[in-house]
Amino acid sequence: MKKLISIIMAVFLFSTPVKAYCKGNESKVHFLNTIQSDAIIIEGDSANYLIDCGWSYCRGYILSYLKNNNIDSIDAIVLTHYHDDHRGDVVGICKALDVKRVYMSPHENKYKYKLQKELKNIGVEVDFIKRGWNIKCGNVLLTAIGPIKSHGTIENNNSIVLSGQIDGISYLFAGDMEADEEYDILKNTIIEKYDVLKTPHHGLDTSSTEEFIETVKPAVAVVTSDGYESPEGKAIKNIENSGAKIYRSDKNGNIVIKRSLDPSIRIQISTEFK
Question: Ranges for the Metallo-beta-lactamase domain (predicted)?
């Protein structure tokens, strides 16, 4: 079953809107239902990106989803951090799609150099990115705004946090950052409202503090949850109190967001279970 929901929005963008260099292809952001893990496909007009790779066993599902949606290439992958529900089978996905570049966190972790070696062995370039890094291609602009500093062995707080402008819609991809990294970003970054928030850490109470959510003030919050361990009550309450419309992968399945062609309806959101 597939449900298409059009939402009328009047929200401020994070920064000056990025001009869309449309070549006839719709630009979409796909939040896949990979069971309390992240696998986010950015389908731009000139390039495609994958943020995180879900669990290892999600490799086949991700590849099948890409094929079924006529996405035949991924220009680069960003791994927000090294936990297994985010790094997944990145090597296998790169092999299958002939991905040329993977961006990873520079912070120390036992998987950091292991993945670097495995990826280089199959011809994939690896770049370690820090705050301030950005990439722009066509109507997609991604900028790393976190982490501000290393949080040592607290891997969630080493998550790469990406601010995105995609076809005129502002996104915040928050990885698994917890309250300490939220505080660091709020203290060191000028943040305005976002259209779409990928809720940090699957909607668990470690994250989505009241101050953070009230600052970001998303119109839409996407939660990559399983319905059992996640999400949790306090985080969801903070998001609800902000006025955001919440979409959960455990309830809504795959969540796809794009800009509406109707100027009176800025954002279209479709959901489907497969």
Answer: 36-226
SS3 state of residue 192: coil
Is the distance from CB of 186 to CB of 174 less than 8 angstroms?
A: no
* Residue 115: per-residue pLDDT: 98
Average the pLDDT over each of 54-68, 69-83, 123-137, 255-269 and give the range with the smallest value.
255-269
- CA-CA-CA-CA torsion sign (177, 104, 162, 247): negative
Query: What's the number of domains the chain is made of?
Result: 1
72, exposed or middle or buried, with CB in 10 Å at 0-12, 13-18, 19+? exposed
pTM of the entire structure?
Answer: 0.90
Q: What is the token pair recorded at 219?
A: 């119109």
Q: What is the number of residues in the chain? A: 274
Place of tokens 């040592």: 152
- Tell me phi and psi for residue 31, to 5 degrees: -100, 105
Could you list the residue range(s) of the whole structural domain that residue 100 is in? 6-272
Residue 253 included in any domain = yes
Beta-carbon contacts of residue 152 (< 8 Å; ≥ 6 apart): none
User: What CATH code is carried by the domain that includes residue 267?
Assistant: 3.60.15.10
> pLDDT tens-digit profile of 55-107?
999 999 999 999 999 999 999 999 999 999 999 999 999 999 989 999 999 99
* Side-chain half-sphere CA neighbours of 88 within 13 A: 31
User: 3-class secondary structure for 82-143?
Assistant: CCHHHHCCHHHHHHHHCCCEEEECCCCCCCHHHHHHHHHHCCCEEEECCCCCEEEECCEEEE
Nearest-5° Cα angle at 256, 3 to 25: 115
The 8-class DSSP code of residue 156 comes to G
Is there a domain that residue 264 lies in? yes
Q: Quick check: 86 and 53 in contact, CB under 8 A?
A: yes
